[in-house]
Amino acid sequence: MRGPAIKTQPLFHRMREDSRASATGGVAGLDPLRIGGESPSHEKGTISNQFPVVYLARHGETEWSLTGQHTGLTDLPLTQRGEENARALRERLTGLNLKKVFTSPLKRATRTCELAGFGAVAEIDRNLLEWDYGQYEGLTTAEIHARRPDWLLFRDGCPGGESPEQVAARADSMVDRVRARGTHLLLFSSGHFLRVLAARWLALGAAAGKYLLLSTASVSALGYENGLSGPVIQLWNDTRHVKAPEPRDTAVQTQSKETSLWPQRQ
Predict the structure, then answer these.
(1) Model pTM?
(2) Which residues pair with 21 in a beta bridge?
(3) Which of 116, 156, 160, 186 is the most exposed, fewest CB within 10 Å of its CB?
């Protein structure tokens, strides 16, 4: 049995400018399985669109995502730029033949889902909630390290909140749910949870999520190579549609450039 793999080849996609979103017939543009109209092949296998694809959309920017504060169950709204980037997701996701859309109940996820054009058809699933940071809610990593220098979220979890194992259990429930449907799906959620979800999709421990940086309003895709026994990441942290931070947000802009595998739209 082929082990899980992460596909990081540069997949650039053509978007159909004349297509429109359809709540009943799926959403018609982004296909991580095709490059210039041709499916990508690999030396020992081929990624095929005959298998289900699970698309992941992280919510748009919030004030705390800008400042680097851990935002678990605190129900923050999107910033103005966060809303603009959420609207950009509508065009970015145009062309998908989606059969089901799920979203976290947190307003930053539901608002992103709504602005992306899926609010009327999305179903809320509490398994998509962000990591519960407990006593570390609202703190930056620097502030946490001032108290506990060796702390690592994906290894240690949060006192008064969730452990990595608890988050992984929620991710497993979500993976089971989407795999049971066997169709193309779209999930709206938050960064740290989606990173654990991707790790569990590959049958890796929650700790592997630390290697999967994820930007706000990004699009990713989980799928299969050769068969359902070969889970892969087909697309990760695509932010070509995202409006860049303002010049004053130098630290955030630097982080965004470092974490994205895709060129920013100019």
Answers:
(1) 0.78
(2) 27
(3) 160
CA-to-CA distance for 38 and 22, rounded, in angstroms?
Answer: 25
Q: Which of 13, 59, 70, 192 is catalytic?
A: 59
- Of 223, 236, 172, 239, the residue nearest 200 (C-alpha): 172
- For residues 233 and 7, the answer to whether their CB atoms sit within 8 Å is yes
Amino acid identity of residue 86, one-letter, is A
Q: Which two tokens stand for residue 247?
A: 């010049």
Strands (E), 44-118: 45-46, 54-58, 100-103
Q: How many CB atoms lie within 10 A of CB 3?
A: 10
Cα separation of 192 and 142, whole Å? 17
Q: Tens digits of per-residue pLDDT, 140-187?
A: 999 999 999 999 999 999 999 999 999 999 999 999 999 999 999 999
Q: Indicate if 246 belongs to the active site.
A: no
CB 202, CB 118: distance < 8 Å: no
13 tagged catalytic? no
Indicate the class that CATH gives domain 5-259: alpha beta
- The span from the CA of 136 to the CA of 241, in Å, is 31
Give me 235's structure tokens. 């697309």
Indicate which residue of 91, 114, 130, 225 is catalytic: 130
**Would you give the end-to-end CA distance of the chain in angstroms?**
43
